[in-house]
């Protein structure tokens, strides 16, 4: 392809703890393009619901809340950030109340429409790497590159437990495995935009790979494309 004015969009999808967050952030840094964590938007909506005492299983109340919130987007060090009603939720996005409820928010079709619109708008800021569950399938089906990162559930649980141990001082692999499997089931069986391998995506099983190996593979492919675009 030689359309040099088209935006470069690298879509990276996959289940929780497949390595996609670290890989996406690092790949964006090396490519010097914006990094967008789409899950952060779903987590932000969940944080807002918890804060306002809205039951996340009450779709109508959640939709009403969404329609009455003001989201502002900005870029900080090439990372997409946002405020909801002038508050930055970043520090709360990985908290337990959010973690336990976010999959329920993400099944609400109207919430997904809202997020997909916001996520598409972020391309106005420039070239980007975006990670999520439906980026290559729904948000940017015409993305320049599409990857689907996966790893065995036990390996994903080990990685997430290690992360939790580092950030919260506790992380039990068995418990994490149960919670991951529950989230996987909700994410992959929901009616709207279930987690799936996007058409045309390259599937990368990261189980036996280091983060650097996965990042380098993506960065090398994108740079090769840029060199001939
Ligand atoms: O990637 P993450 O763990 O931050 O995602 C949090 C939740 O949001 C998870 O349950 C899946 C959902 N999600 C989604 O449905 N679609 C996206 N594009 C990103 C996240």
Descriptive account of the structure:
The protein is an alpha/beta fold. It has a single domain, classed as P-loop containing nucleotide triphosphate hydrolases (Rossmann fold), CATH 3.40.50.300. It is built from nine helices and seven strands. The protein has helices at 20-31, 38-51, 59-67, 96-106, 109-121, 135-139, 153-168, 173-189, 211-228; strands spanning 9-13, 34-37, 71-76, 79-84, 128-132, 145-150, 202-205. The strands form two sheets. It has a five-stranded parallel β-sheet with strand order 2-5-1-6-7. The protein has a two-stranded antiparallel ribbon with strand order 3-4. Strand 3 and strand 4 (79-84) form a beta hairpin. Helix 1 (20-31) packs parallel to helix 9 (211-228), helix 2 (38-51) crosses helix 4 and helix 7 (153-168) packs across helix 8 (173-189). The protein is globular, with a radius of gyration of 17 Å. The chain starts with 8 loop residues before the first strand and ends with a helix. The model has no long low-confidence stretch (mean pLDDT 93). 2'-deoxycytidine-5'-monophosphate is lined by residues 16, 38-39, 42-43, 102-103, 106, 132-135, 183, 187.
The rounded Rg comes to 17 Å
Global shape: globular
Strand order of the largest sheet: 2-5-1-6-7
Which runs of at least 5 residues are low in confidence (pLDDT < 50)?
none
Give the end-to-end Cα distance, rounded to a whole number of Å.
6 Å
Helix count? 9
Q: What small molecules accompany the polymer chains?
A: 2'-deoxycytidine-5'-monophosphate
Class inferred from helices and paired strands: alpha/beta
Strand proportion: 15-25%
């Amino acid at each position: 392809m030689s359309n040099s004015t088209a935006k470069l969009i690298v879509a990276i999808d996959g289940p929780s703890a497949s390595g996609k967050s670290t890989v996406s952030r690092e790949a964006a840094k090396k490519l010097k393009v914006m990094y967008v964590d789409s899950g952060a938007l779903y987590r932000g909506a969940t944080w807002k619901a918890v804060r306002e005492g809205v039951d996340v299983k009450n779709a109508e109340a959640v939709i009403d809340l969404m329609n009455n919130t003001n989201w502002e987007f900005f870029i900080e060090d090439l990372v997409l950030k946002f405020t909801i009603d002038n508050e930055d939720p970043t520090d709360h996005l990985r908290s337990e109340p959010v973690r336990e409820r976010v999959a329920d928010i993400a099944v609400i079709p109207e919430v997904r429409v809202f997020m997909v619109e916001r996520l598409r708008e972020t391309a106005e800021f420039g070239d980007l790497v975006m990670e999520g569950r439906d980026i290559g399938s729904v948000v940017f089906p015409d993305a320049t590159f599409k990857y689907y990162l996966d790893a065995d559930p036990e390996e994903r649980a080990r990685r997430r437990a290690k992360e939790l141990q580092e950030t919260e001082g506790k992380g039990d692999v068995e418990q994490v495995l149960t919670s991951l499997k529950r989230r996987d089931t909700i994410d992959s069986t929901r009616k709207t935009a279930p987690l799936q391998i996007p058409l045309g995506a390259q599937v990368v099983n990261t189980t036996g790979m280091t983060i650097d190996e996965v990042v380098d593979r993506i960065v090398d492919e994108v740079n090769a494309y840029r060199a001939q675009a």
